[in-house]
Fold this sequence. Notes:
The structure is a homodimer. The first copy, chain A, is 34% helix and 24% strand. The first copy, chain A, is α/β, with parallel strands linked by helices. The longest helix of chain A is centred in the middle third of the chain and has 21 residues, at 171-191. Residues 426-438 of chain A have low confidence and may be disordered. Chains A, B: It catalyses: a quinone + NADH + H(+) = a quinol + NAD(+). Chains A, B: Residues 12-329 form the FAD/NAD(P)-binding domain.
Amino acid sequence: MDFAYNTKFPLVVIIGGGFGGIEAAKKFKNKPVNVLMLDKNNYHGFWPLLYQVAMGSLECESIAFSLRKKFDNQKNFRFRVAEVKGVNPVGKYVETSIGDIAYDYLVIATGSTTNFFGNKDIERYAMPMKTIPEALNIRYLILQNLEAAVLKASKEEREPYLNFVLVGAGPTGVELAGSLAEIRNHILTKDYPELKKEEMKVYLVDFLPKVLGPMSEEASKAAEKFLRGMGVELLLGTKVESYDGETIVFEGGKSIRTMNVIWSAGVMGQIPAGIDKEKIVRGNRIKTNVYCQVDGFTDIFAIGDVAASITEKTPNGHPGVAQVAMQQGVNVAENILNIIENKPLEAFSYFDKGSMATIGRNKAVADIGKIKFQGFFAWLTWMFIHLISLMGGRNRWIVFINWVASYVSYNGGNRLIIRKFVKETADAQKNAVTKADQ
Amino acid sequence: MDFAYNTKFPLVVIIGGGFGGIEAAKKFKNKPVNVLMLDKNNYHGFWPLLYQVAMGSLECESIAFSLRKKFDNQKNFRFRVAEVKGVNPVGKYVETSIGDIAYDYLVIATGSTTNFFGNKDIERYAMPMKTIPEALNIRYLILQNLEAAVLKASKEEREPYLNFVLVGAGPTGVELAGSLAEIRNHILTKDYPELKKEEMKVYLVDFLPKVLGPMSEEASKAAEKFLRGMGVELLLGTKVESYDGETIVFEGGKSIRTMNVIWSAGVMGQIPAGIDKEKIVRGNRIKTNVYCQVDGFTDIFAIGDVAASITEKTPNGHPGVAQVAMQQGVNVAENILNIIENKPLEAFSYFDKGSMATIGRNKAVADIGKIKFQGFFAWLTWMFIHLISLMGGRNRWIVFINWVASYVSYNGGNRLIIRKFVKETADAQKNAVTKADQ
């Protein structure tokens, strides 16, 4: 296959069109390289707003942008929809679903996936939320379970359909909990006159004793107060033991009957095959040096969630956030150009712009350097930063209109079940096993 | 099950939340009836814009609206997601996926589905476009085939992926052809620098010798001129003989290699089981009297695409358009109330507001009574009418922004493959048969 805009230039293959891959590719504009980006999807997703897709308040397409369209004015850029199966560092090629592709420089920017910590039952029955189809599945499951609840005659029968358990109290869990509480508080009885507000319960679970673990104490405390005020039940310092699709059991024996478990308790790097095991560190991340080079190579780089630049200052690598990936994307492109131009490499240094989480209407928390603030102004800031970070003017307008409509009406979002989601249940599973046994 | 807001009032069951069902339900607001609407989806779809969902220029959720939300301020309205399996006119109940439901009055507003005229191969391999998932499948198929074309080395190998054949030159076929031509003319080489405009071909096929059959001669001629000007190849007076997923063959022997066949050549009523065969007329529609009552019943009504009010003036019933369904929805509600109040029934009379079709940027045709106009003003009118007809202010704004963005940029829409569509092919089919035979 021929990906060369100019055959005199080397080919940089970037695996992944996430925050890191995009920034790297952009930096190569008008530079003496050919860029080929591979991604299993033809779009870039703005994951910080994915929970709003799951909650039905945004269309999935307003948080995503076509990778081809994004780069349609960059002549040295090519794109292919492809799944990368492995890397061959000796032969200098990647094995993909569309054939082997030789590279001169390789950037692994494959991101992370949900970590179920080896619990197969949880993996089978709980809902992960790391991709758009997964977010849509959550939306459809929730709506289907509300529809199912309406059909049940007794409170006891309705209970598992109306209990929502969010495992993992990081930004995703907190934002989901806040959104679900708002659905309960403002929308439930409008849409479902048959249901009672009190019957819908939202639980937020974490094995840590606080929400938003990596943020400041102020942010964590404020978020807990906001969540409690909205009626979210916090189960902190609580470890999940098992989930069979119908009942979630916690260490110590407490359990909740629920058909709705969303799992955002951990992530792990998605590493293509062919990377030596000794180069893989905690969280399934690839060990890199300060130049984002994979340990032992000068032509293979790794950035973002899949990489861990292990230094004295960062013994576990950098946090798995978009800002790290974006800054590493720029660094990796500069360093590849430095190599080509025989210039010295530049060490990566992370500039932490801060972190934020939103809980609901007028409620957010922000840690920006030493400045920590919570409440209405944090919420405005959160919205502004997320709006301007979205890709595409059209997307920005559409998200803005959705937010205004939600704010004014207390009843945003369309809540449509476009494709039914078929959830595995313990019973369905038992039946499947029985059939296989026959 | 209990659907009664007021147990003293009779229960009207409406099957279907389309144009007809919605108008009927609205008309019952604050009237002495209980209304139960059943639909297999939890939304109402604005089908005149469905082709824009298929073409990737609109998100599916901007043309759909939650049925629960639509009626959240109508106290005597209840809704259930349910598939209706059959009607029992003697026992006065409907059989559904959520159990049997007794009615006092029944309104069948189940609409129509794609008519493949009994050709099983076409049904298997061609793409229908009557539902949102079907429109999304078309979008994904087209995008996947463009991605596939990029991977092919020779023009001959690319050909079937880049030939688009639209069967049926009614408004849907014409609108799809125009949109595909615009994608070819303005977007193809921007998104896919590897492809050539000339290699993508759009064919519009109809067995009639003209496009937009039921519209005026002026509209038809203008549409043909617009389409030809945009590079659409018209195959009129041409009948499809077969399609095996790779080659479409026409009567007389001409054939086109194509992986992309969209079938909008006909519709047929979707009738629940339990309606006597002698009450079913041409196009699989239920024969009704002028009061929209199903022939022989006073408590069962049928409206919209599934119904044919056969009179001397309308020997084939009314055209299968939204306006008929909406006006019949109003009539049916009034007549049910008339029966309850012992008043005489009112005969349905259709007020034809005219018909329109859009071909592309600045190009549309309109027949409004005796006034016929084409071109820019018709296009503006088309947009205005479709915008104000959409349900929900949010949807209107979002569609408006999408249209403005497309008009300004010549590059609207996001064109994302959210869920891969797996198309059956003749080969896959052959393999499947082989496996089953083993």
